[in-house]
Structures are given as C-alpha cells and as structure tokens.
Specification:
This protein is α+β, with helices and mostly antiparallel strands and 180 residues long. The chain contains three helices and nine strands; from the N terminus they run βββαββββββαα. InterPro entries: Polyketide_cyclase/dehydratase, START-like_dom_sf.
Length: 180
Amino acid sequence: MRAHGLASQAVEWTGARYADTPTVEDEIWIDARPERVWEIVAAVEEMPSMSNELRAVEWCDGATGPAVGARFVGYSKHDALGEWSTTSYVVECTAPETLAWAVTDPDDPSARWRFTLRPEGAGTRLSQWVQLGPGRSGLSFAIDAMPDKEQKIVFVRLREFEAGIRRTLAAVKERAEAAR
C-alpha cells in the first residue's frame, strides 16, 4: 500500500508476545539529498514536534547531538500510559546513513529505534524501525496486570508505533523538501 509517498506494511495481527521482540518499520522517499535528511533526523531534540507522544528531549553529559555512546532523556505522554521519561543511548551513528538508539539500557533495552537513509535517484529513501523489548517497559506493567490480553496489548502498541512512524516520516519529508 502506498499513501503520500509512504511505503507501508501495516501491522497485521500475528499474536506476537512482548518476548518475541516484535518490530514495525516503514519508509518514505524524500526529494532531498541524504545529507539534508540527516540534518533533520539527527536533530533528535526536534523530534517532539513530529510526535504525538514525545514531548521533549534533553541531551545528557554536555552532548549536543548524536554520537555513539551519547545519551538523551525523552519525556513522553500517552493517554492510557500516563507521563514518563526514559534515557536512551545512541548505539549506532554513521552520518548520513544510520542513527539508532536503545531505550533504558543498551544491553537490555525496552525498545530499539533506528533511522536508515539510502541514496535513491536524486533523493533519499528513509526508513524508521522500532523493536519492542526485550527489556521491561511501561507496557510490561500493563501485560503483568492483564496477562490474558498480552497479544492484544502488544498489537495495539505496535499499531500506535506504526502511526507514529508514519507521522514522523511525513514530517521529515515535508521539512527536507521545503528546504530545497
């Protein structure tokens, strides 16, 4: 399915459990060079303006941008999950190709996120990917409270991530193409 330049693979009911470390990925073609797209993706502190959940980002330890080992705190809000903050660790940073971070613990993350940029024609193919778990997260508490609903809880969260990824990719595209 293609809509608004997004190549989408909608999350399908798979009966996945949290321990399966399920993933969601989507991509978009952007009429801008990878270096321009990278400027937007690497400005992690600007991501809240492209997200329904993420409210603010602060770099830690004097960092001002992504580099392997750099940390940032993200402040989020969700109607059903409340408000929380997490520390993320940049685990891969190769400009202008890949930016990835692990949430909470780089060795046992509650989630992993990644942007991948590939030159394509006169533009860039940008993908965003997320993996739940394997470390515990706020979602784990919901699953603990309702273990019989785990698969539905995971499915709903993956659908929310899918919608968030689509929104982020569309916003990056709009910003990168507006700068031409």
